[in-house]
Specification:
By secondary structure, the chain is α+β, with helices and mostly antiparallel strands. Helix content is about 15%, strand content about 40%. The chain is built from twelve helices and 41 strands. Strands 2, 4, 5, 8, 9 and 10 form a six-stranded mixed beta sheet that branches. β29 and β30 form a beta hairpin. α5 packs antiparallel against α7. GO terms for molecular function: protein-glutamine gamma-glutamyltransferase activity.
Length: about 700
């Protein structure tokens, strides 16, 4: 009788629908296992191709014999199973890494625990999770119920998963190119590098949402968002705002930034992306390094290993079909406005992923440039191109390889041009571009030179073959240079800038021939942007020298800091143009050198204990090393996982050799070791930066 009653009771229970009462996503444990604990978004964030655990509590006891569970992961604007934006996940006998499926790990009365694995090539983005239950009653009828989880989950790329196309084998590199929240961007000039610390802040609450908003803006099809090649190209295409297709950040190289934030005033990506999400229009203003930094933030947030790369002496707006041209008037004056642009430096990006669209051997670092050069398929974008293909001169492999090849390979031809437009090629500088390609080294703040990844060594047969192939592919024609009748004057240049900002330039000449020579030499100092766009002439010197055999002479030009710093834009520097002509032989000496004045040191020091949720003091110290006062100064301070701090205005001029100290409070949101980054800028100077590290105690916010 008791057995009969028990059977009746069981039948009564199992005849009803199976309804989830609660679902525990085990956010804390899963986020830790997927290395997503640092994301400030509280939702479950998973790296694709990796398993995770959940538990479901039903309204009755679960029966494996009569009950079935199907999980559905749904993403996109028009979800469809045929487009892989609706994924039904069923029970499997054995979980395979990188393949969808789940196993029941335990059942305890009404509670069922599952281990679920996502696909290693699945679409990345925001998912809604449905739990479908099917109960088969004694009459073999199916009773179905659908539960919708109230919280979305996020699935991103996984460089820890060998089946993912972004897999990166070295753990130190994964730590650097995915998890490191701060970095260094190289700027300045050859011979005088400057380093810009940057707060990538990819785990700040706005950054993942902004990265997904970029994919929406790019109109990349939902089903294509599992391919890192297409995701990188889409993100690159929407970073820079322009009249043609809009974007995240408005480019400005004019030196006039009153209606926005000057590019040099930003310390990190989070503030830029936060403003974009609020206003949904281009943020003012950015330049190449800010575009590259924001791209790094967005792609690291999505799980793609990414870094910034700086190319010193970088050709721009060139596809290698023609040489780089500089022009001079017949009276030896530079025709600056006609010149092709060679930037002092240019920053682009590399992301790491496989290239199944290319022949074998071109996986790994892929270069792309968020600073637009060419409109491709209706969008201003450049890349990704295999770095190996760039090195080999294989311009036909990948996206826009010819542009990236031209940025690191090129000859400069100097022409004279008369009033009627007639030109004569007078000199050639071979292999002038592509120097000291730089990125932050793994686990240090040092510079890693990656030039050999982009170019074969100068003078090698491999470089000769790569350039020969590239020229063939772009139908480039050689230019004939007028040769001098003799080459018997030795020229040497020496230029220096003192710590106080004063500039001294000297050109020495020596006649090593057997005949007398007359040398005309012209030196001019011009205020110039790092993009090589000139703004105003500062000072020039014109001299003629008669050099007997064995004789030496020199021509000098000097500039006091007080003569030029206040008359140029904050982010301009001085370019020296030199041209000398030997009358009897038509021998030419042409030189263009960049001079940047020394930046003062910005020292940072923290005081007191740093604890989550409590402000602490950062003391910022600056000594004015220039010979002129610094006016209109501001200090900006930030760090990853820190509350935003308003810029601090320096109310009075900072006189020569004067020291200032400012105490700024900042409040951390997350525990751990963090870098705090500061920059100072004023009417006379920018790119004055400082960094300090702080250990923040206290438990981070739990999801």
């Amino acid at each position: 009788m008791l057995n009969c009653l028990h059977r009746m009771k069981s039948n009564t229970i199992y005849e009803v629908l199976l309804k989830p009462k609660s679902v525990e996503l085990q956010r804390s444990l899963n986020r830790q296992a997927h290395k997503t604990s640092l994301y400030e978004i509280p939702n479950l964030i998973l790296r694709r191709g990796q398993s995770f655990d959940i538990s479901i509590t039903f309204d009755r006891t679960f029966s494996e014999a009569d009950d079935e569970i199907v999980l559905r992961f749904v993403t996109g604007r028009q979800p469809m199973q045929s487009k892989n934006t609706v994924i039904p996940v069923t029970k499997v006998r054995n979980l395979q890494q990188g393949e969808w499926g789940y196993q029941i790990t335990s059942t305890e009365d009404k509670k069922v625990s599952l281990k679920i694995c996502t696909g290693s090539s699945c679409v990345v983005g925001r998912y809604t999770v449905y739990i479908d239950t099917v109960h088969r009653n004694n009459e073999k009828r199916e009773e179905k119920y659908r539960y919708t989880h109230p919280d979305d989950i996020f699935i991103i790329f996984n460089p820890w998963c060998s089946a993912d196309t972004v897999f990166l084998e070295d753990e130190n590199e994964r730590e650097e190119y995915i998890l490191n929240e701060t970095g260094r961007i190289w700027m300045g000039t050859v011979g005088k590098f400057s380093v810009r610390p940057w707060n990538f802040a990819q785990f700040d609450d706005v950054c993942l949402m902004a990265a997904l908003a970029m994919l929406e803006k790019s109109e990349l099809a939902d089903s294509a968002r599992g391919d890192p090649l297409l995701v990188v190209r889409a993100v690159s295409g929407v970073i820079n705002n322009n009249e043609h297709d809009g974007g995240i950040l408005v480019g400005n190289y004019s030196g006039k930034y009153d209606d926005g934030v000057a590019p040099y005033a930003w310390n990190g990506s989070s503030a830029i992306l936060e403003e974009y999400l609020k206003k949904r229009k281009g943020v003012k203003y950015g330049q190449c390094w800010t575009f590259a930094a924001v791209a790094t933030t967005a792609l690291r947030a999505l799980g793609i290993p990414t870094r910034c790369v700086t190319n010193f002496i970088s050709a721009h707006d060139s596809d290698f079909s023609t040489q780089i041209d500089n022009f001079w008037s017949p009276d030896n004056k530079p025709r600056k406005r006609l010149n092709d642009t060679i930037w002092d430096f240019h920053v682009w990006n590399e992301s790491w992923f496989k290239r199944p669209d290319l022949p074998d051997g071109y996986d790994g670092w892929q270069a792309f440039d968020p600073t637009p050069q060419e409109c491709n398929e209706g969008v201003f974008t450049c890349g990704p191109a295999s770095v190996k293909a760039i090195k080999q001169g294989k311009l036909y492999l990948g996206f826009d390889t010819r542009f990236l090849f031209a940025e690191v390979n090129g000859d400069r031809i100097h022409w004279t041009i008369d009033s009627e437009g007639n030109m004569e090629a007078i000199a050639e500088e071979k292999s002038i571009v592509g120097r000291f390609l730089s990125t932050k080294a793994v686990n240090t703040i040092s510079r890693e030179d990656v030039t050999n990844s982009y170019r074969y060594a100068e003078g090698t047969s491999e470089l000769e073959e790569a350039i020969k192939l590239a020229k063939k592919l772009c139908a480039r024609k050689e230019v004939k240079i007028v040769s001098p009748s003799a080459d018997d004057i030795e020229f040497s240049y020496n230029g220096s800038v003192q710590k106080n900002g004063d500039i001294d330039v000297e050109v020495k000449m020596k006649n090593i021939g057997k005949e007398s020579r007359v040398v005309d030499i012209y030196i001019t100092a011009i205020a110039t942007k790092y993009t090589a766009v000139p703004s105003n002439d500062l000072k020039d010197s014109l001299a003629a020298s008669v050099l007997e055999p064995g004789a030496e002479n020199e021509t000098k030009l000097s500039l006091k800091a007080s003569d030029y710093i206040s008359s140029i834009d904050t982010d301009s520097h001085v370019n020296i143009y030199i041209i000398a002509n030997v009358k009897e032989t038509n021998q030419k000496y042409i030189c263009r050198e960049i001079i940047r004045c020394e930046r003062p040191n910005l020292e940072l020091k923290t005081e007191g204990n740093a604890t989550v949720g409590k402000p602490f003091d950062v003391i910022v110290k600056l000594v004015n090393t220039l010979s002129i006062p610094l006016t209109g100064g501001y200090i900006n301070l930030e760090g990853p996982g820190m509350q935003k701090v308003s810029a601090v205005k320096i109310k009075k001029p900072i006189n020569p050799n004067e020291e200032i100290r400012e105490t700024i409070q900042i409040k951390p949101r997350r525990a751990g070791r963090r870098e705090i980054i500061a920059n100072f800028h004023c009417k006379q100077l920018c790119d004055v930066t400082g960094v300090t590290e702080v250990e923040i105690s206290g438990e981070p916010n739990k999801s």
